[in-house]
Amino acid sequence: MDIKQIQELIKFVSRSGVNEVAIEQENFKITIKTNQAPTVVHATVPQAPLVQAAAPVATAPTAPNAATPAVPAAEDTSKYITIKSPMIGTFYRSASPEKPMFVNVGDEVSTGKVVCIIEAMKLFNEIESEVSGRIVKILVDNASPVEYDQPLFLVEPI
């Protein structure tokens, strides 16, 4: 990380309203603190978990004779694995607008396959799958901002 990138990060932190940001990479660690309201965001890139099991979706029970319109039950996502964002940035499904998407719904992925790119501070970080399976759902729109630990994909394990 060079001085220009650090200056851009400082500007970004001051505009975002965050009180403290800590970033750790292999041989580099930076913490930026402001005098704003106490909100803390930690982005630890190498140690950040990329894949975790999704929590089951719970639905409220309804009375058997309730006069409510039929609503489809929420999809059971407990059998899927969630690929989450390891950092704050902008989510991209392809390397450039002219290039094909890294993955689409129904595609099979294997461990180490690039599934998206997250741009953070003008650096493009390839996000790799840590599981093998089939992409069931893409949870983020292309070119949208994402937060640390935000779910990006649902993967059905093979």
From TrEMBL:
Record key words, sorted: Biotin, Fatty acid biosynthesis, Fatty acid metabolism, Lipid biosynthesis, Lipid metabolism
Stretches assigned to coiled coil: none
Cellular component per GO, a single term: acetyl-CoA carboxylase complex
Gene Ontology terms: biological process: fatty acid biosynthetic process
CDD domains noted in UniProt: biotinyl_domain
Pathway named in the protein's UniProt entry: Lipid metabolism; fatty acid biosynthesis
Molecular functions per Gene Ontology: acetyl-CoA carboxylase activity
Lipoyl-binding domain residues: 80-156
Stored InterPro entries: AcCoA_biotinCC, Biotin_Carboxyl_Carrier/Decarb, Biotin_lipoyl, Single_hybrid_motif
Record keyword Chaperone present: no
Function, in words: This protein is a component of the acetyl coenzyme A carboxylase complex; first, biotin carboxylase catalyzes the carboxylation of the carrier protein and then the transcarboxylase transfers the carboxyl group to form malonyl-CoA.
Protein name: Biotin carboxyl carrier protein of acetyl-CoA carboxylase
The encoding gene: accB
